[in-house]
Amino acid sequence: MQLALFALLNSLAFGMLLFLLSAGFSLIFGVARVANLAHGAFYVLGAYLGFSVTQAAGPFWLGVLVATLAGAALGVLAERLLLSRLRGQELPQVLATLGLSFVLADLIRAVWGADIRSVSPPAPFDGPLTLGGLLFPSYPFVVTGLGVSVFLVMRLVLRRTLAGAQIRAVTADPVMAGTLGLSVPKISALTFAAGIGLAAFGGAVGSPQLALSPTLDARMTLFALIVVVIGGLGSLEGAFIAALLVGLVSGFGAVYAPALAEVIPFALMILVIALRPQGLLGRRVGSA
After folding, report:
1. Could you state one GO biological process linked to this protein (predicted)?
2. Is residue 158 one of the residues assigned to a domain?
3. 129, part of any domain
């Protein structure tokens, strides 16, 4: 029972990290129409930036803040200097983000080296938590709570604010949104920055949960793609549900079927595509 509960806790925490990663990916694709293959690299970069700030200055949450702001700033630069010049050209944009991921991975390796690093959870979440007479690590509860909180805040912003209405308008029809007076390039740039900042935030927050490695970027980008395909492109709720599902099947697979742990998320994705090609909460192309 304790093993199952421990697997459930870690699976939920991993699922929330995948949500923080994939929510930004889905947001960027929905607004800017860019399949950002450098998303995992920005996640890893945020993790290393947070690690370095913590090592130099001390407070873990200061490192998270600096990593998030730096990720958002780098997102603005990437969108303005690279992707805005390729607007409307899907294949060049994909290739550009793929090349950017290689550049960031090499930069991370050059600055921090290729060694795997571990990050300790911040106090007071660095010790065990007793529930029902059983001991559990406390930091996965923090990660899970942060993921749920970010989901609720993002949903509130997108549904209840003017900025959210503008983002939804550009997502639905950028041409019509521009005709109505919205600055589509500006909204796309800010959304890109927010998505990258969210990925960097996830990397910094998740660093005590997942060991730091320069090669983690490809794995995280792949997980982001799996989550958005399962949940449905452009759907925040779909990304949240899909991230939980992928986290659960990955976590329990690693415990009870380790030989199939890497295959199970792909099997889930194939099953969803076969039954519902647009994803769990996605819309069919051309639907109202």
Report:
1. amino acid transport
2. yes
3. yes
Query: Contact, 251 vs 11, CB < 8 A?
Result: yes
- DSSP per residue, 16-68: HHHHHHHHHHHHHHHHH----TTHHHHHHHHHHHHHHHHHHH--HHHHHHHHH
> How confident is the model over 24-63, as pLDDT tens digits?
888 888 777 778 889 999 999 999 999 999 988 778 999 9
Q: What is the b/e burial string over 155-171, where b = at least 16 CB atoms within 10 angstroms of the residue's CB?
A: eebbeeeeeeebbebbb
Tokens of 179: 């005709």
* Backbone φ and ψ of 31, nearest 5°: -95, -55
- Answer yes or no: pTM beyond 0.85: yes
Q: Is the peptide bond before 124 cis (omega within 30 degrees of 0)?
A: yes
Confidence of residue 284 (pLDDT cuts 50, 70, 90): low
Query: Residue 239 belongs to a domain with what CATH number?
Result: 1.10.3470
* Residue indicated by tokens 């076969």: 274
Those residues whose C-beta lies under 8 Å from the C-beta of residue 131, and which sit 6 or more positions away, are none
Domain count, the chain: 1
282 occurs within a structural domain: no
pLDDT at 285 over 70: no
Domain interval for residue 258: 2-112+125-275
The answer as to whether 286 is a domain residue is: no
